[in-house]
Design goal:
GO terms for molecular function: phosphorelay response regulator activity; transcription cis-regulatory region binding. This protein is of the alpha/beta class and about 230 residues long. It is built from 8 helices and 11 strands. It has 2 domains: about 120 residues, Rossmann fold (3-Layer(aba) Sandwich); about 100 residues, Arc Repressor Mutant, subunit A. It is about 45% helix and about 20% strand. It has a 5-stranded parallel β-sheet, sandwiched between helices. Helix 7 crosses helix 8.
């Protein structure tokens, strides 16, 4: 039974989410502020965190930073803050999904299932027999999920690696943002493909020598993106 930590300073929201998740068969633990969230995270070791942003003592962004220092467990933001900058900051911190309030409990449960399903698939796809990929100074080891640029280890988040490896498996093929959204988040319920733009921007920051003239991930205006493999 997956264990979910729900963090929100509104008791009514906590009750709604808790009732929804218990009905779906999840074990639920709750926290009313950022300090409690961090304490519960370390004590209970949940499988997923649902996190509000506007929290007493320590806000949700800082809670996310602290969790990401030691863990890559899925984090879903559930917040009344629905501005694009908030979403960009959240994804840059490594959150897995972002749902604005007011929200549908049914949609929240669907997103939780999708995130947990993807996490299980990531855990089961580590295969020591998978070949490494090497091209123009980029080296990827899918078994260890490590990426090197000119022999220097590059730290990628789970979804940054997933996106890069998906591109590598489909070289020179163009994908729309919606197609990439489904492949990486594995859900049709996210509803905002800006997350793909943010993810690609972060990935380019880490693997490209020049973001203005990328050599690996190219943009086709009005169409989408492709990972370019060509002869040197």
């Amino acid at each position: 039974m997956p264990k979910v930590l729900v963090v929100d300073d509104e008791p009514k929201i906590l009750k709604i989410v808790e009732h929804c998740l218990i009905r779906e068969g999840y074990e639920v633990i709750t926290a009313l502020d950022g300090r409690q969230a961090i304490e519960q995270f370390h004590r209970q070791e949940p499988d997923l965190v649902i996190l509000d942003l506007m929290l007493p003592h320590i806000d949700g962004f800082q809670v996310c930073r602290i969790i990401r220092e030691t863990s890559s467990i899925p984090i879903i933001i559930l917040s009344v803050r629905n501005e694009e900058l908030d979403k960009i900051l959240g994804f840059n911190l490594g959150v897995d999904d972002y749902l604005a309030k007011p929200f549908s409990p049914v949609e929240l449960c669907l997103r939780i299932k999708a995130v947990l399903r993807r996490t299980r698939q990531e855990q089961h796809t580590s295969n020591p027999d998978l070949p490494t990929f090497s091209h123009r100074g980029l080296l990827i080891n899918p078994a260890t999920r490590e990426v090197f640029i000119d022999d220097v280890l590059i730290e990628l988040t789970a979804k940054e690696f997933d996106l890069l490896w998906f591109f590598v498996k489909h070289p020179n093929k163009v994908f729309t943002r919606k197609q990439l959204l489904y492949q990486i988040w594995q859900t049709d319920y996210y509803g905002n493909d800006d997350a793909v733009t943010v993810l690609i921007s972060r990935l380019r920051d880490k693997i490209e020598q020049s973001k203005s003239q990328p050599s690996f991930i190219r943009t086709l205006r009005g169409v989408g993106y492709k990972f370019v493999i060509c002869c040197d």
